[in-house]
TrEMBL record, chains A, B, C:
Glycoside hydrolase family 42 N-terminal domain: residues covered: 6-376
Pfam family, one: Glyco_hydro_42M
Top-level taxon in the UniProt lineage: Bacteria
EC class (word): hydrolase
Keywords: Glycosidase, Hydrolase, Metal-binding, Zinc
Name under which the protein is recorded: Beta-galactosidase
């Protein structure tokens, strides 16, 4: 368990390096990330290399005992590369280049990019393989799939399709190109989806997104292979920006040792629109689930974000510390704060770091220091602990992509709906593991599988087996709609899962924002977006619609199947509805919850064998008191004293408890 | 009178064709439309033709007695055509191509498109001329004017202008190109309106829209001529999408036998924004007016629409049937439902047909079947009946185009204002015929001519003659502003019609959303958008403004002229205002109305000689009771029983009455 | 002091010229602007010139004693020029041309434009140098900086940078191109900011805006030099459109004799969004400040504006006259109304002039005539009077450009915030001179210097000297953030001014629309956008925050410095807050104010020696009574009678008073 910072020695006078290194050490920092955008410094001219400055910077930092993570600089091809080899630039769907000069101006499939990436990464790997301060690598930076239409992508996409479908006849058949006379008669007719039209064939669009995702993963593996060849003792990871992304992060991290994420929780808590875009706890649960183990935060909130867009609010007192502990509570082993000094130059001048432009430590820095010293104090206890939950939620980039190609109804968003479900568990103090939808689920008491819109027969079989063996499975509307080629299935909904769900969808009404009512457990709650009108065969209705022409028809059912049971939710509930439903299921399943959590107060547990550490985090600006059941079983992790039954949490307050036996 | 469906045999296994044909027949279907997007199946490779599959499909359908309408497939040029002959693709105002792969990727003026269209249409026409199952043709699909800037369009536009203006000097003078130094000194300087700028000369923009409209009409006639040459016994029509369109539908249907429309009434009745885009009854009255006779619905609502955009609500129980009867009540003789099976493949997977993806008939299918059986039952009575109203509304694509080039004020929209006027008549149960503004009006008791912004001397003369002979004419604000070349006239408003209107506009205030008040018939109502401050000469004010600095000035006048009278409305009224005004005018003119209709309940009458059939349609989700005056004069069309004085209409309820003597 | 009109004889039949000239004279008009868009008439074909029509028009106008201002026609290159020499067209950031056919389709750096501009301007200058009716020139029309990326601009930008930075090493260092590997190693790598991305380096973006601004100023000087060579007795000016603009108007007018502005106050007073875009009095104060002397209005509101966009409301009765007097009250010596006749042709058909399309004088014309006769009556008194205020506000295009490149927070806008400050002085009847931020300020009692975000050491020194000598200076938040190369400074905020401000910003919170409270002078008021939490050293807090975690921390301070004092406002106040604060400062500084002005009633004074003329203008649609203190010191300027202590002002009411001794 360590704390780190992101640092850009190349942006600052060498005169400050040594003092910076001393100050980092004094602040409790152990790890420093360097050089992920420094290509023009490392290779100022084609085939002219200069690693001396980086050697020097590492030496200075190492002199204070700091460990180094190096970034490969491929996110920012220098001018000589983009100008000399224009195939480096991505081409948009109107055949216009993405001009150089910012970031991301590189096509993962560009032959020139690959060639020069190989050289610079290999040289860096060879050079730093033996440097004892260097512990590992970050590939590139925040890679996401391009929407690129260059010649290399066009040719690559054709090859990708040929590998998948073998013949054009198969492709025509699987995509249904007969619609609107889209049948191909020569491979040369197949292009990327030019024109940016959403009207294109959805099977075509989904395969192109898969190809684009595969291109990123392949570029990442390409770098990882080079690094592993020369630096067998170093770890390799990559830092993702967050969600949603077209890129399949499970594929992207196939070649990585562990996951890492850049985490910037919303500082504008009164701004619903901004807050909604942040997934908070879900981002961390998703990240932990990528490799199903602990992870790094490679960039962590240190001040107000803002660049070419307006700044948000500065983190309120306590916020930086509380969210740093939040990442630890959900599985982060190393938290690297972005960034040591706020940039004085370039486009990110107002993306604030720990130190302001003037460099004098202030409130935010002090708060960070408090977190660092606390983490260092507890790291002996927390090392080796992991997060182990009894509820699994199945996430799928495939579903997200397919549902963005064809948004089902106003307000329907796979990820936003996923967050609604996840938040209900957060509110009830129930930990959730968020896994790839193809992952093994047999160890969980409860599995939530939202909108399995594309139907994968292997997943269907896995879930059937899980239920057969006694598991509780929750399915939701828009399940079993399509096959994996994004073609609608002829089966009654919810498709192949209708057997274990014991129900079919008789018809549906995409109600959108035309809100409806539902009656469940003697209460009446709201629902929206979509209404499946259910026809149970063996299932038992547990909620009925209470509005319009479908009043009285089943909306949610529960079906006993094998030794387990399957819930089917035919609509999207409001928060109160989800809390009532999942409260019921959690109690029924015997999964522990934390009752009475105020909104915005989160609980998570790390454990190792019998040792359990419970984090109670007030992520709000209000003061809250939390009642702790069985408080005598818990001690304060810092003081060792007995936990109080009533925990007072100021704004940003953090309470860390350990099980009495730990 | 027949019911039909749109069917795509090429999308489905041949195995289902026969059963589908049987099921269609059993459902009461008589007509099937085929093949309007099937170019890649009919000509899979350049000059390689395959009509066998279509022959087979027709044979199967014909074996159940079904009649066939064939679409020409020109809306979807196949890859071999777009790739081999890129002049097929439209070019946008920034000189970028519209890429292939969806629909509409064809310039009507493209020489290659014309060449390959001629061949495929001619081959189809020859092949199916003698097929007894085939009764007629639909050209292309939902054609609208392109905004194309390709070489063929540029050259074509120049020729079009040369035909119109003979010399550049004339063109310069008529367009007023002297403004901003836009004078042309060589024909080569004349381009299409590149850059997409709304700041271009409005005379130039309007002529380009006319040219674009003429291009569609010419392409349509090009196909019709081929079809008529080879299939003299078949009808030829085209299916329009709706309104507004740049294309002048009156010109477009010059070469057609009758009009056809695709009709998808808004299913989201609680969503004002979506509902506003649908014209409902006005679409049907417009369509009937195109050829001033009965028409076809070539695609009729069968389920929720939705594709690349979110789905809307599913039609509520009764809605499919009620709207099918609505089309009949306003002049449809054949109603073809879109579509038999919901697509499993391609971009329109969620544009729901009669059968869902699973193919099992459900609520919507049953409702359709009820309509089909009812129509088949009544077709003996209704055959030969037509809609004949006493009110004519004059619609003009020219005005719509000109007013979109220069929107007069916030909120002002020619078509939306037209709909406001039309809806007032619908609410009062007064049938309206909506005609081209150049059509003959002498048979009507009342003529509504909204915003004759462009002044056509022939129309002026026609209206003057009409009033002279005793007609009642209603004019509105923004009349007589421009000549036909989109140049402002030097006459006082309302231009040449000011004589018969007996009023001039002293000045005007474009009030936009700055709502104003009006005093009329001892009541006070709202007005908006535009306020003409009127100076009557011979006219009598019947309403005055009641707000701001123009309080007390006349807003609406009535002028006796010849044997008739002319109303001039100098503003845009709210619904209550229009109902009061038109209620007054209708009573004064002796036009029959249907008093006390609840909002959303529509009445229309078809007749033939003495026989009259009245349709009372509840298009809402609420239950309504309608009081029928002189109920003893009416009988129920299905049972023959005496009509009740109080008609109870459930949601989507339909009552069809026939005159006692019918 | 004169009244004029803009006139386009080339748009009208020669038959009307003579009557128009007579009517102008009868209406009190003295000046007519001609020909600023008439290139295609003056040079119909390359090197074919025709000035005869203009000679004739001038002769006709001169026969009625009218004086002529000629526009150079370079805003509208004719077709032969744009087609024959395509380098004339600007190229956008995606490398697409701005097509000809509207206006502005000319790059100021285009060699062909320069070549043909030189010829036509020289020919015009030679031809009209000796025409006694011609008194001066307007260059081009409403020039603003292009965002052009053509070859000439690319080359020009490189040269501009080379002149500024000498070497690429300097440029790399000053711009901080090391960020994201943006270091240049060859001048050929430097382009304009292609792609239109806001993510580009802000130092790069700001220098490109300076280059673009310099390009306009250079093109303007290029024309002025030609005109001055041949017409030494004529004045040369240019008409600006308004604010904000990238172009530095102080630079642009360096080569001009006096400033001129086109003034269209908002007619939609109930439409906040539209009204907000107009700066009203601030536009006039800014214009007067450009050359720090009286100016011309070259286009003045005469009717509703509207073209390709919807029309606004027509000016309410009194509005045209009141705003014409407003321009005079704030320093206009000549008011040229746009335009004599409303265009019947071209894109500006609905930008209404004094006469409507029909040409019959109406209410607006009569109102204009009243203004003209009043001005002619008073011109003897007003000639030679100027506006001299005791408050200076420092405006900076540099700050505006830099703050638009990096908007600080939601709602923060340099110009909108400037207007908020300015409006507070307008409400209190305190005149303000608005000067370039680099101008001399020593003559003022109070200097307001909003958001000196970019820090210019010369300005810092000037302000320090000013305060030292006894001046009162008001600084606001976001001062001292950056150096002139748009790089963040390492000093504590407010940068080099923190010494005389006696305060530093401890930290800041970009609160945006998350409104906060402030306690000041025993009252409580709102603040927004940004909160600096202040740490005074020698300053005294005069307001504290009253909300959230920074409750009780200083928000506004006042520091005695030298013989003067410095206020620092760490946030953006609401109107009540500014009125309280500036009311306090104005009283403290002994600057005269006009108490009790109703909202929308403005006061301004022109003077010459002892003679003072006070204009009291009701710019609203409501009636107001204004109490005049010391009324016995004032006389009515028209009647010479004693001023009443209570002035009744109808909507658009105007009262002009002269000091009793004048």
């Amino acid at each position: 368990m360590k704390v780190g910072v992101d640092y850009y020695p190349e942006h600052w006078d060498r005169a400050v390096w040594q003092q910076d290194a001393k100050d980092m050490k004094a602040a409790g920092i152990k790890v420093v990330r360097l050089a992920e955008f420094a290509w023009s410094r490392l290779e100022p001219r084609e085939e002219v290399y200069d690693f001396q400055w980086l050697d020097d910077a590492i030496a200075v930092l190492a002199s204070e005992g700091l460990e180094i993570v190096l970034g490969t600089p491929t996110a920012t091809p220098p001018h000589w590369l983009a100008d000399g080899y224009p195939d480096v630039l991505p081409i948009d769907s109107k055949k216009q280049p993405m001009y150089k000069g910012v970031r991301w101006h590189r096509c993962y499939n560009s032959p020139s990019l690959r060639r020069y990436t190989r050289v610079i990464v290999e040289k860096l790997a060879r050079h730093y393989a033996g440097n004892p301060a260097v512990i590992g690598w970050q590939t590139d930076n925040e890679m996401v799939a391009n929407d690129c239409h260059c010649d290399a992508c066009t040719a690559g996409f054709r090859q990708w399709l040929e590998r998948k479908y073998s013949t054009l006849d198969n492709l025509n058949k699987e995509w249904g190109t007969v619609v609107w006379s889209g049948e191909y008669t020569a491979w040369s007719q197949v292009t990327t989806p030019l024109g940016g039209s959403p009207h294109q064939n959805p099977s075509f669009l989904l395969d192109f997104q898969r190809f684009s995702s595969d291109s990123v993963a392949d570029f990442n593996k390409f770098q990882a292979d080079i690094l592993r060849t020369h630096c067998p003792d170093h770890f390799v990871t990559h830092n993702i920006w967050g969600y949603p992304v077209v890129t399949d992060n499970y594929d992207l991290f196939e070649s990585m040792d562990f996951a890492a994420v850049d985490y910037y929780p919303a500082t504008d808590q009164n701004n619903d629109a901004k807050a909604r875009n942040y997934l908070g706890a879900l981002t961390l649960d998703l990240t932990r689930g990528i490799k199903q183990k602990n992870f790094w935060v490679m960039e962590q909130l240190s001040g107000t974000p803002g660049c070419w867009f307006p700044m948000s609010r500065t983190p309120f007192p306590g916020m930086i510390r509380a969210h740093a502990w939040q990442t630890v509570s959900r599985g982060a082993d190393v938290v690297v704060h972005f960034r040591w000094r706020t940039a004085r130059i370039g486009a990110e001048q107002f993306w604030h770091g720990l130190l302001d432009h003037h460099g004098v430590p202030g409130r935010r820095f002090e708060e960070f220091k408090r977190f660092a010293s606390e983490l260092n104090m507890l790291s002996g206890l927390l090392d080796g602990t992991v997060v182990q939950n009894q509820v699994a939620m199945l996430y799928s980039h495939e579903q997200n992509n397919a549902l963005r190609i064809q948004p089902q109804v106003d307000g329907f968003d796979y990820l936003a709906n996923f967050k609604k479900l996840h938040q209900s568990f957060v509110r009830q103090g129930v930990g959730t593991d968020v896994l790839n939808w193809t992952s093994k689920v047999s160890d969980y008491k409860l599995v939530i599988a939202p909108s399995l819109y594309l139907e994968d027969p292997l997943v269907v079989q896995k879930l059937a087996d899980y239920v057969e063996a006694g598991g509780t499975l929750v399915l939701t509307t828009r399940t079993g709609v399509k096959n994996m080629n994004n073609v609608c299935l002829p089966t009654r909904l919810p498709g192949a899962l209708r057997e274990i769900a014991g129900v079919i969808v008789d018809e549906y009404d995409p109600v959108g924002h035309d809100a409806q009512r539902i009656a469940m457990f003697d209460a009446n709650t709201g629902c929206m977006q979509w209404c499946d009108l259910l026809e149970p065969s063996t299932a038992k209705p547990i909620a009925h619609y209470d509005s319009e022409y479908f009043k009285g028809r089943p909306a949610i059912t529960c079906n006993p199947a094998g030794k387990g049971r399957v819930y089917y939710i035919g609509t999207v509930l409001d928060d109160a509805g989800y809390d009532a439903l999942f409260g019921h299921i959690v109690r029924e399943t015997g999964i522990p919850a934390f009752a009475g959590l105020p909104s915005g107060v989160e609980v998570s547990i790390r454990q190792s064998g019998d040792k359990r550490y419970m984090f109670v985090l007030n992520l709000t600006k209000r003061t809250h008191t939390v009642h702790l059941e069985n408080h005598q079983r818990w001690r304060n992790a810092f003081t060792g004293g007995m936990a109080s039954p009533d925990i007072l949490l100021e704004q940003g307050g953090v309470e860390i408890l350990m099980s009495a036996g730990a």
